[in-house]
Records
---
Amino acid sequence: MKRTIKEINFDKILEILREEDTESVYEKINLVPDSEQLYDALDSYIDPNNLWRKSVLGIDISRYGMFKHLEQTLIPSIFKIFFNKTIKLCLQSNQFVFQRLDTKKIEQSFISTGDGGFLILDSPMHAVIFAINFEIVVRAYNAYHLFPKLRKIIGSLSLRYAITYDTLFTFCDNFYGSAIINNSRILDKDSLNRCLLDENTFNWFLTNIDGIENLQVYTIHDVANIYHFKDYDHKYIEEGENEILSPEPSRDRGIINSDILKIGQIQSKEMSMNIYNLHLQVSLNITSDAAPDKKRLITISLGNLNTTGI
């Protein structure tokens, strides 16, 4: 089932305003007008109760402002290298989950901030797998496997992640909505380089796989039974590569450990939003682009176990 993000058209908004409102009023006496008809017209067009939910993965390079000028100038380039390599990993090694996406679609769904950004994806499962692959690429860089001379110049990089699941819409080819706003708030409040989830993301995994802890025992066949993936083509299970969530259960490869803990609350739209700290341990093969026959099994951690509040 393909879900399309609602597009708010500026010309349509202007059309409603011109029908139901007055552009300029400069009378000697100002009166507060009755806005009920305008409200109903805007509400009918935007239909806020039926905006699609999307998952947003926020990625941020820690302490970017602390780097020297040369390193600061280089970091947006190294982030783009990480991002491009992560896209390749997702499309080549996680084919079932990412079968409806390609490089162009992923790039068009990314809001860059230079030292990070916000990626809009269809589900929290997409976001978790993308984050795992991104952290694998970062580990390859930190361990001097990826551009080792540049690694020596810039130094080790540490990242923080946030995953939210909420409403989004597009306006003038840009993304807006609660999913991005909440994600930014979570990243801003975290100084411990964790992988944090909002309550909607936590509940998505609770509803669909009985809790995110089950990722360590789930196979790609189990994922295919999730309602979100019910219309996905199963040929990518039998014929494709699915390294993180393999066809057979394994505690030696893929996600080998998963921990989740509620760590606090933040305010969002005058409401408290519960925040959860996710820690995953994942073992995957790293392959050289120049020499595909050369592989190295590496275990990484996405997030950490620091439970200090937010």
---
Amino acid sequence: MVALLELEDRRTRVTIAPDLGGGVAGMWAKTDAGDVPVLRPLAGDRPFDLASNVLVPFSNRIGGAGFVFEGQHFDVPPNLDGEGLPIHGDGFQRRWQVEVSDPSRVVLRLDDGAIGPWHYSARLVYSLKNGAFGTQLEITNTGPRLPFGGGFHPWLPRFADTKLWFHAETVWLQDDRFLPSDEVAASGDWDYLTPRALPEGLVNNAFCNWIGPATVLQPTLGIAVTIVSPMDVAIVYSPSASADFFCFEPVSHAVDAHNMPGQPGLIALDRGATVALSMSIDWQGLQQ
């Protein structure tokens, strides 16, 4: 059994799993028709069975067996069975300590984050206010100066009538290793300026210069879900239309930014320096 903490107010209920990467185990909207899932409820006892993961000290994959920073090459080994490349850092694989737990706020702490060259501590603050669920992640570098990043990995229910709606300027196409190949305009099949269904096949792409909220229309559940973050990259993932989920991931940088010129979106932290990342998820009822 996974030990869970609970946040709850009159509109929303959220469960948190400190021992499972400090992630979110579920989020439900309290509607007139009963509780419905805003995020996919916990599906098992593995990190990617969660409703939302915390990504630290980087998001997604790093190619090239590592990266070069300020003239020095740093190795980053694979960290997940079945993955040939390092992915999503190590925060989602660790147990987090509980500092605060009450109906409106949960604070978690990770003192010994370490993967590849990174050493860091982190603090997660989950909050619930008027039904809106907020997440703030503070990352402090406890090792040598390095580029840091991260983000959040919500898993949302996917139905035949689910539609996604957000604005981004570009999208990265990917190769067969799921690493970026070409950055193109977010137009045509990549245009979500108006609500549209997700692709029938695999989608696993980073959208850049994401501006404003992302809205997920869920007519089956009778709600619309809004995801907001000051970060301007969003990764959209779903294996196919037969999957019962998809992911909309607000992150600080594109896939393999460590090996892009200028390392866009990554933040160089000296020892002792801190960076904060945040996301908020809310819901509204759909008019029938």
---
Amino acid sequence: MNGRLLKLILFSLASCLFSATALGQTLQGVVFQKGTGSRISGAVVINLRSNHKMSTDGLGTFNIPAFLGDTLEIRAIGFLTQKRVVQNFSVLFVHLQTGNELSEVIIYGKNLKQELQEVEDQFRSKGIYYKGKPPLALLSPFGGSPLTFFHELLSKDGKRARRFSKYAERELEYYEIASRFNDRVIKSTVPIKVEELEDFKTAYLPSLEQLRSWNDFDLLNYLKRSYEEFKKDRAASK
């Protein structure tokens, strides 16, 4: 092996090592609801150093580039935000505590909208302009763009954009519901016990269409009627 070839090999190895070091490693994790073992889909995971963002899938799992010492912030509507420092690259298990005060919902909602817009901007930088759902008009030979259509429809980025779009719609819908149907409003309307709140909200969570059609008086009446039914059901089950 001559000296020039050896230098070329050493340079290639050094370049690969530098690239791997610059990108960091992929950290895998799972997000659970604390105390239940239920997995949380759609939680937002942010690397605060790189500002890289992604959301957990239907099984509550995520993969995010990171270095040792990076701080991850994990957020989900209805849960308290948690920060975790990357200490190794074993699977990271995160357990989020529920927290439903109105102020937390409002702050989270504002941050969520900003983060969703930032992620959509990241998709646009990769050529995804229609959230992974390209219109058929792009196939038109008159001013269309078939390459854009098939890129959005078939590429991995297009599939990720469709999943993210569904997540974003669901989170924004839940945020709007939680801004009116929350612990503070419920406790100020009916004499409910703290330990009953989660069961009550699960059983009587109104749809977004209902809330949009109600004024405050309608909502209060709904809460009172629902709580009476809730008490009867609990008494009958004992």
---
Amino acid sequence: MTPFTPHRVLLTGVSNPLGAEVARRLAPQVPMLFGCDVADPVSALEEMDFVHADTRLSVIGKLVRQLHIDTVVHLAVMVDPAHDDRSVHETDVIGTMNVLVGCAAPSSPVRRLIVKSGQAIYGAGPNDPSFFSEDMTNWDRIATGVTRDLLEMEQLVSEFALRNELCGVTVLRLGLRVSEDTSLARYLSLPIVPTFTGFDPRLQLLHEDDAADAVVRAVVGDHAGVFNVAGDGVVLLSQAIGIMGGTAAPVLPPYGRWVSRLALRMIAGVDMPAHLADIISFGSVMDCSRLESAFGWRPVYSSREAMDALALGKQAELIEAPSPPQEYELQVYLQQRRRRQHQLTASRN
């Protein structure tokens, strides 16, 4: 079979920092890059054509066909939700369903699909294995919140892959990230950190640079399948708190998670998603050997180094400062001018 090389790439979720950084890294490597999201990109990228489009609407399929997209990178997936359950479900499940329908249409030119998932798919509980491998997503525990939605989303992706053998499908289960805009980072940055009495769980982290690198490698490489992505080693919750210069306060009761989440919100002003409340009780560690074997690569930053980077204020900036309105308008103008020049050249030929 002739190796597939991506030429026309559509990136969803470019208004978030990870999507913006993936777009910046992909732009020099693919001939045509398109981005879509409900909000404007956080920074101007002249090499990317941007269109306002919501994956929760069926219009995404028309976009794929009209732009003759051969590769879809679906990053418009919430893995650290700060929204209500309904919004998360609509984005992760309904949005992904619309993307899959667009990729599966008879007239669709899509030959490669990369989907962002997250470590939250495994949940966290007292009877968990020491390491989660990619095949350990079936258990008797009742899944709720983002864990339930990621399971449903990945089931849809798996069924799509079985029905569409000509399209290579890659799912990346990204580990816990501690960039400044994540729930875990905000929690660990508290001067007094409320913890669950009697618990000191293992945390496995993923640096933002490595998250973006993994996505780009999945786009330009040929790695179909499901892959855990996280840094080497673990950091105990008590160690993470110490690295950040905080003080652990074991005041949360080890029962009634929703009560503890409410207490955490009232005491510290932190809105902790349900899956993270479980993780800071029981921990969660993934086996990433499949990633290293298939990609010939592993994250550069260990879990400890990702934590150190946040503490030292050296967390790599994924994007430039948000573009002022004038710069964004200039980006749109330059894109329109470039398209007119292409059309004029094509008409002369």
